Amino acid sequence: MAHDQIPRQAGIHPSPRAVLGRLSTGAGRGARITHTEHLPPRPGTHADWPSAIRPEVINAIRAAGIDRPWAHQARTAEHALRGDSVVVATGTASGKSLAYLAPVLSTLLDGSEEPNGRGTTALYLSPTKALAADQRRAVAGLTAPLGTGIRAAVYDGDTPVEEREWVRQYANYVLTNPDMLHRGILPGHPRWSSFLRALRYVVIDECHTYRGVFGSHVAQVLRRLRRVCARYGSSPVFLLASATASDPAVAASRLTGVPVVEITEDGSPRGEVVFALWEPPLTELHGEQGAPVRRTATAESADLLTDLAVQGVRTVTFVRSRRGAELIALIAQERLAEVDRSLPDRIAAYRGGYLPEERRALEKALHSGELLGLAATTALELGMDIAGLDAVVVAGYPGTRASLWQQAGRAGRTGEGALAILVARDDPLDTYLVHHPDALFRQPVESTVLDPDNPYVLAPHLCAAAAELPLTEPDLKLFGPATEELMPQLEQRKLLRRRATAWHWTRRERAADLTDIRGAGGSPVQVVEAATGRLLGTVDAAAAHTTVHEGAVHLHQGRSYLVRQLDLDDSVALVEEAAPPYSTTARDTTAISILETTTEIPWGDARLCFGSVEVTHQVVSFLRRKLITGEVLGESKLDLPPRTLRTRAVWWTVTDDQLEEARVHPQALGGALHAAEHASIGILPLFATCDRWDIGGVSVPLHPDTLLPTVFVYDGHPGGAGFAERAFHTAARWLAATREAIAACECEAGCPSCIQSPKCGNGNDPLDKKAAIRLLTTLLAGAAEQPPAAE
């Protein structure tokens, strides 16, 4: 952020080593730290701004307390002014915002002095509303001395209708998100004609978040933007920023469709970072199939947040689920009330699904220091400026190294030392990582995986493009090689009609409404309080079956609600306030069939395959678990309709001879395959930018399509998201890490830390840990004899 470099009011920043030392005192606390990584402080390297940056902009930056830029900021600005699309991929809090803001503001000032017309414009895209609002505050602070030459405004779903016309007519720096670009700006481009005609720069912040299905959609939205801009005579330069990106130029070019220069050498200074890996202890409880159970990451993280708040250490605790964020805040508040009645009010939850006014109030309280601790989902992970944080607790590995470093980087953003703690969940990947720290600290972040040619992604964007401007033959190349093959299908389905030399959208409904670029699929389900009719928030349609089914516990702003009815036709879940002593977890059953095998390679007698599949799954029941311990209290049946998914998968088969070699007897085969499937899903996020909730799996002792024992791992999104393909290309390393994770676990017969899955529809039965290790050993022996799958 540009304002990461602005000096802030001095405060007390305790030594991260001292804070960790206090946290580790007490019965058994020290043994929970499996590794501590010390990242030493780093000095900064200055440079000079390019001579083309206007002196007024340089003076405004100096007035903010920044005398000279870091070397990477100056290089980025130089490329931007030269007209090169560029991605700056340097560390968190390295001042990436200033790297693109300096050339953007300078160019906008140049344009504001033109005698006629609107002058030059720029568009800023962020993945979240919160980040765009935060950037708007930063720009306002920086540009105050520049007068009216810079007219920055946020344009998103929260912008009042009466303000939108002013933004369209007068703003020259518009901050929005890909969703608004897709649904609002591009379909209404004639009203934006003067802005688009003058568009010089498109800033894409936190570009590493555009991965999988969402990233593939955004890639096509950007191609639509380039096409509409060309219609008005402009060809904007793309400026991208990410604190965590592997092969940033390749990823940025695939996202935008244009060549991109990368800046990766970080010239900014960094304070000391102490990074602890923390494993909760085993409890006396036993879970499914008698497996030992660890204390939950939720309970452990709530304890750490409580202890840090008592020490006066400003902390954000990141948690993967909305429910988890609410639960951690609630537990911490209750425990703090026993210490000091003033402290609970200084802890809150922050997650997606809140109403706009709730989000804004929390952001303001965080900025002001009124809040001492926050339990947040990834809605707060991105580049929002959170001044003065001392510590970050990450409740469970967030799915990728990229997200882990992004979250850890929220602390110490003013150059002081920072403490980061990763609390492991009872999960194969978390357990593997806290005992293999090199996998976190000695490896680059993952490659960003996206597939703009996915027909489920591409088809609706071709329709949207045709609705914006009739599609011509020269346009087809812009949208990728799969376009020509899709056009006849869209004509057959009567979505497009060819007239003379162009394809037209002929339907009455809006073409942009054909797809949800977040990949949610369908209208969000509204969560409504039955007694009052009050709207509490929303849940994505794809998650409704598992999160707001009848009997589910729904948490909102620290209050618990029970779902009394889920109306799928009207997309409404009716809830009533309650205080059950349990949480709920949905279970489903899954079947899979092979539609097409795209690629197949031998691994000895085994086969490794990649292709298209159809998955049918149905939520059939839900478990009730004790809040703190996770102990299962009971299971209730559900009657929900099945859902069908056509997607991409990687799968492997083994022969009877290999089973005999691995000493996997017929009665153990189902458990061996099932255990290998669970563990491989848990480990795949080390090799692709996904987490286990992006992917699914099925294992079958005799699959009807292969006629062999088969394990499938598939993308959980229509048409695929690129994760299974990445798994295919890295299969030898991926499955070797899977085998090692199972073998290294200290349990006897299998547990949630190695082969049990939190989302298994079969109650984690059957599972055979020892047979799975022998089976994977035999499979990998065949893999060693073969060349790796081509990237």
UniProtKB/TrEMBL annotation:
GO molecular function: helicase activity
Keyword ATP-binding listed: yes
UniProt keyword annotations, A-Z: ATP-binding, Helicase, Hydrolase, Nucleotide-binding
InterPro entries the UniProt entry points to: DEAD/DEAH_box_helicase_dom, Helicase_ATP-bd, Helicase_C-like, Helicase_put_actinobac, HRQ1_WHD, MZB, P-loop_NTPase
Residues in coiled coil: none
Pfam family, any one: DEAD
The keyword Hydrolase is assigned to this record: yes
Region of interest called Disordered, as start-end residue ranges on this chain: 1-22
Residue intervals of the Helicase ATP-binding domain: 77-263
Superkingdom of this protein's organism: Bacteria
Domain Helicase C-terminal: start-end pairs: 304-456
NCBIfam families: DECH_helic
Protein name: DEAD/DEAH box helicase
